[in-house]
């Protein structure tokens, strides 16, 4: 869990409170509905303000149609979506357009809404500048324009909005200085300048005017050259949340103490990503404030924790993740042994360079609810002290080089309490007796990439994520029928020794997004209940023994974008509904099965398809000419990757006081025939564009439309019965890196257009009936002659067979007819060598004379000679070592 969520929650809280009335009004009708005056007469919005809104809309793109209710024929704009009005006057008072997907500029007409007190344009694609006329909205209290593409300088006129309570300019592309006119905003309670672009703070005394400021976020703004920012911040009496992440604090010239004042009321402090080292802590600490609840020192270079940090008796969350320096774990715990260890509920220290064993001293932190110390190299023994932390609900000790077994009573330590357990990527062995009794609703269990073995006997019925992949589990998977409460989002049992049939009890998995059962020994027919997985995005059954036809119910899984059923025994015709029911599909792998029949034309409806693998089946007929309907393969370059499946799991932290979601992701991966070898693509799978129809019984010609797939990287049509000529325009597939047309019945010449295929580094045209000269190019002559074998009519390099007309005519040697001519040549050669020798001797003795006479010159020369000799030696040795390495690879 990222602690930054606390920033978001704490910063948004005031906004939620102030918009409650508007949200309640929205329940009655979009935009708050109509308003009535004191006499019960309905008030409509003013014509002037209605026209201003229509003009604002006219200059915007609204691809999602959120402004479809904004119509001129609708007389009352108070009924429009996102618009709220005053009940008595009809003036527009609130405009909430956040996350509407709007594109365009902020038009001046918007500022005719003179009574506006809330303007929210955040999470859109507004570009251009904020008009300076925004200063005319003098009644504005809440202004949110975060997460847009706004640029230019921040207008000084914002300083005229003296009624502002909340101002959020975060995540835009402004430049210049933060206007000192912000000091006029004396009613401001929340100011977010997070990542506002290339902005800087100069003369930040204006900050000290914001006496009501409670929350300040200046993440990403350089404070290194600001002289008095510390004084300004310390003068804010009501400030309780301060975020200075990525502010170059390590370059601050003056050793101020942020907490020299014991009356400081800071509760949330975020100082991550500032290159801080422990030696700087004398000016960040000692923290004498007893109000501090959250302290974030992540992504720094701390090599220790000051002892007085242990005296923060209110500290509940300590974030130390991603600190690059090495620290002794026992020393780290000793420095937290004060009252901090009693109050601390969450410890985040992942990806930090701890050394030494996990210390038993951590049991002094008896109130720990959340502990994340993944990727800290804390093995090899399993930390038995974990069993002393009776209040744990979140435990992540993954990727810690633990090579040990788990005590059997470990699984019974937290009855009905654990929400998150991650032991993955270690070398833990042993049996897993029970995964059912310790976990609460929506729990996460990740034991992947270990050496657990034996059957899986019990699973929590309320599990949301279950990852047991890459272990040695065996037996059946009827345990899935225990998961009956519909929380399951992610199930990965791949790379085990599981056997038996897939049980027909998937009806409850209507929230499942990822199902991966690849590399097991499962067999039988897919159950019809698979059709209940209506949210499924990735289905991977690769390398099992599933058989029979695909059930029609699978067509209900319309959210699928990755379907990998390769290396099984599925049979029957390729279903027509694959092309009709899966509009989002980008991966379709059905290789190494027993499918028969023809390739259905309906597959061409999969416009987003990037990977099509139907190889090693029993397909016949011709290749559909509509393959150029695969729009993603036609477009050159890389599209946004689609192989990342994001999912969220409900989560409560800090004792359950705050609701959040655990966000995670699953990366599609697949084994693809790439350049003649089987290769597993993982994170780069979404960048691959490939068609493999090899090892079937396909006939007919290669359709010329295939050459329109300009973005294709790999095309394999080998081991079929294709005939006719290679399409002449194949050379326009300039992105192709791998082309295999071998073992067909192709005839004619190799098209000359292939000379322009500059990225081609794998080519196989062997065993066809091709003839003529191999076109000349850097690429085509670089392949082994065996790539052209079995084509008796081919000639020219790299083959030794010469083409007609290529016989080299021998030029007769010209013999001088007179001896005098020969003597002249010999005389010229003789004088050349005499001159060369005399020149060398003269230069040599001149150089030696200078070196003998000039002491400094002699010293410099021999120093240069020694250095040059060493340079030559190192580079020659390195060259031959590299050659040997390349030869072995």
TrEMBL record:
It is a single-pass type I membrane protein. Residues 47-86 form the Leucine-rich repeat-containing N-terminal plant-type domain. Residues 1-21 form the signal peptide. The keyword Metal-binding does not apply. It is found in: Cell membrane. Its main location: membrane. SMART domains: LRR_TYP. GO terms for molecular function: ATP binding. PROSITE patterns: LRR (PS51450). Residues 109-326 form the Disease resistance R13L4/SHOC-2-like LRR domain. The keyword Transmembrane applies. Keywords: ATP-binding, Cell membrane, Glycoprotein, Leucine-rich repeat, Membrane, Nucleotide-binding, Receptor, Repeat, Signal, Transmembrane, Transmembrane helix. The chain crosses the membrane at residues 831-853. GO terms for biological process: defense response; response to other organism. InterPro entries: Leu-rich_rpt, Leu-rich_rpt_typical-subtyp, LRR_dom_sf, LRR_N_plant-typ, LRR_R13L4/SHOC2-like, RLP23-like. GO terms for cellular component: plasma membrane. Belongs to the RLP family. This is Leucine-rich repeat-containing N-terminal plant-type domain-containing protein. It comes from Lactuca saligna (Willowleaf lettuce).
